[in-house]
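Subject: Sanity check before I submit

Could someone independently write out the structure tokens for this chain? I want to compare against mine line by line before I put it in a report. The sequence has 211 residues.
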Amino acid sequence: MSMLLTPAQERVYRFVREYMDNHGRAPSYEEIRKSLGFQSLNGVAKHLRQLEQRGFLQSPWNNRKRALELLPLRSGSVSIPFLGVVAAGIPIEAVEVPESIEVPESFLGNGDNFALRVRGDSMVDEGIREGDILIIAKKPHAENGQTVIALVRGEATVKKLYRLEDQEIELRPANSQMVPIRVRAEELEILGTVVGLLRHYRQNPFRGKTS
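---
Independent answer below. Compare away.
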């Protein structure tokens, strides 16, 4: 499991698992915060959402502080369609390419899944960086606050979705330097929700000379 999670994410996962084993229920956000030394509940929520994106946990995210469920870790890998690039910034066209990609089975959502590579940095505060590969569960609907892949006037973007009044939808970035995208409901098509993330760490050798 440590190859798929950061050390901080693994600490949270192990604490939740051990707490549920000992108490028969999930810990509250405050119990996680106190036990692991987080400064705020937002820090706890951030790590729990990242665990959900990677397929280790699920929650309805509707203020039910104990509504956490650890998912069984599936083994092996599965080949899913890789459909090109999606913008984490200004929407760009998703380029469909005849390729597939092998992903850990534990990353998959229910039903059909596909993958897209991220371009841009508007979702960095959600742990989504340029070059990451997102695993998306294909579905036409999403709950408020979920991270979605959406077509805005035919162009694809990854954002957090919120429904507003008067049939408007706001796609919010997770980057304080960027502004939300607000559109009419009929101008937007939800392709799916983000359920997993792959990232390759490569060490670039230093080729210069030292004096």
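---
OP: Matches mine. For the report I'm noting this point. The longest strand covers residues 77-87.
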